[in-house]
Amino acid sequence: MLHSLLLNNSLCLKDSALAFGLDRRRPFDADTHRRSGRWRSPEAAVVPNHHLPMRSLEVKNRTSVDDIRSLRLITAIKTPYLPDGRFDLEAYDYLVRMQIVSGAKGVIVGGTTGEGHLMSWDEHIMLIGHTVNCFGSSIKVIGNTGSNSTREAIHASEQGFAVGMHAALHINPYYGKTSMPGMLSHFETVLSMGPTIIYNVPSRTGQDIPPAVIHAVSQNPNMAGVKECAGNDRIKGYADEGIVTWSGNDDECHDARWMYGATGVISVASNLVPSLMHSLMFDSENSSLNSNIMPLIKWLFHEPNPIALNTALAQLGVVRPVFRLPYVPLPLAKRMEFVRIVQDIGRENFIGEKDVQVLEDDDFVLVDRY
Known about the structure:
Layout: H1 2-19, H2 30-35, H3 65-69, E1 73-76, H4 89-102, E2 106-109, H5 121-135, E3 140-144, H6 150-162, E4 167-171, H7 180-190, E5 196-200, H8 202-205, H9 211-217, E6 223-228, H10 232-240, E7 245-247, H11 253-259, E8 264-267, H12 274-282, H13 287-300, H14 307-315, E9 322-324, H15 332-345, E10 365-367
Parallel strand pairs: 1-2, 1-8, 2-3, 3-4, 4-5, 5-6, 6-7, 7-8, 9-10
Helix pairs in contact: 13-15
């Protein structure tokens, strides 16, 4: 028995040696080894990654990059929750339907506003797939599949396109920031997946995407354009060079659209007043309307988005007052201010059919495990 085990072990060691390219029958020759020159790293350590993107060359839901470039009003859609923190799909469906009825042309699913950073990837891809299955024939579905990990961004984009999203939204690597060549390599890699909008928001990532990087990737056939939060001068520079750009700032989007050459806006405020944002982007230059909704926009961004939006939708009665931590509702004074803003702009311009109300602190549910 012992002899048999030792023999088997010997055979295993021999097979392992052969598997690693070692020939135990050939003695080690020190002179030959010295004559081979300086040490060289194993080939496996220097051969580039030859993985091909897991993609289909079929046009996703008959959507081309040019279709994405033409979208003038895209809403960064809110994700509502049930009291236990799971998705409230009935409320979510209502929010998306209101966007379609009001003329929005696209939705960002699982973006910052939709709290994609608080989702597991399973939740994230499920919500993209749900949106495509229910509404993909009526509105363009753009999945936020970006990540500061290139590996995760590739995997999420593969899955997002496989479940039918029309385009991807990709951010530059945040927190663990990279160099400009690293950023360029990151974008070139994810652009191979399908139609893509690149998102520049230095206030959140801690790193600006410089024009040199955008220029370098602008010739990629999957590059739809840029969601730009670095100001209207930056937008004008891209527009003058034929690069499609959406304003990422609601407070600047009117001027971006009519004075600086932006195609449109990727909006937070359109969750609340989609018809007014549609007018702002589609009708004509309208400084009066822009001024009328500016108090709402300033209120929305008094605290980091989506805190105010979540509070507002709950007070309009269209979502449950459930927050996934670390987000918490605005304080009472700000909740009362929102009611006055709704009255000034007109309740009929906001989504939902219930009267706006001031919610008390005890009305809100904060979920720490979801």
